[in-house]
Design brief:
Structural class: alpha/beta
CATH superfamily of the largest domain: HAD superfamily/HAD-like
Strand content: 5-15%
Strand order of the largest sheet: 3-2-1-4-5
Number of helices: 9
CATH topology of the largest domain: Rossmann fold
CATH class of the largest domain: Alpha Beta
Shape: elongated
Number of strands: 5
Largest sheet: 5 strands, parallel
Distance between the termini: 21 Å
Order of helices and strands: EHHHHHEHEHHEHE
CATH architecture of the largest domain: 3-Layer(aba) Sandwich
Length: about 200
């Protein structure tokens, strides 16, 4: 019998990809007011850097400031368009962070479904990320009350697909792996590790 549901956050419950693409473009357009750059080209350069970072995320990166890491991503993206200036990269990161707060949203009816599920199952949120950004994101989305446990990689010191982090999620909500379903959008990060840990899975 299924007793617990564990959810990924980004692109499972909320439309993170659209949000960060839009925020990157907004930041690039603001920078284009002051520098001779093509905002679309800069935006794509940033997306490449950010995607690469999250795909390579390791436990060693945890504990660092995401602000500093994001500044490094912008520094690399700006270098791709011919701007080598750390102050500009810092400004770009600030613009991006402000834009992100204004365009993040849950997928339609997610809140209704979580409200329904929490009456029948123990719910956990399991996300690879940094406490300073993901706690803010969770607050902006107003989803914390739905979950019995929230696990952020930066806080637990493990990242998906490490099977141990899925087992830790089960422990936090008091369910056995075989009684628990992992729901996520990234096969390599969300599904493979959950299967290795003995959870059931739903790939969305």
């Amino acid at each position: 019998m299924i007793r617990g549901l564990v959810f990924d956050l980004d692109d499972t419950l909320c439309d993170d990809t659209s949000s960060y693409h839009a925020a990157a473009l907004d930041a690039a357009h603001e920078l284009a007011r002051e520098h001779t750059i093509d905002p679309t080209v800069l935006k794509e350069a940033y997306i490449r850097e950010a995607d690469g970072f999250w795909q390579r995320l390791t436990p060693e990166e945890l504990g660092k400031s995401i602000g500093g890491l994001r500044e490094r991503m912008w520094e690399a993206a700006l270098a791709d368009v011919g701007i080598a200036d750390r102050a500009v990269a810092r400004h770009a990161a600030e613009l991006y962070n402000a834009a992100r707060k204004g365009n993040l949203a849950l997928f339609p009816r997610v809140d209704e479904q979580l409200e329904r599920w929490r009456t029948s199952y123990r719910l956990a949120l399991l996300t690879n990320g940094f406490s300073e950004t993901h706690r803010e994101k969770i607050a902006l989305l107003e989803i914390e009350p739905y979950f019995d446990a929230i696990l952020i990689a930066d806080e637990v010191g493990m990242v998906k697909p490490d099977p141990r982090v899925f087992l830790h999620a089960c422990e936090r909500i008091g369910t056995l792996p075989r009684q628990t379903v992992m729901v996520g959008d990234r096969y390599e990060r969300d599904i493979v590790g959950a299967i290795e840990a003995g959870l059931r899975t739903v790939w969305v």
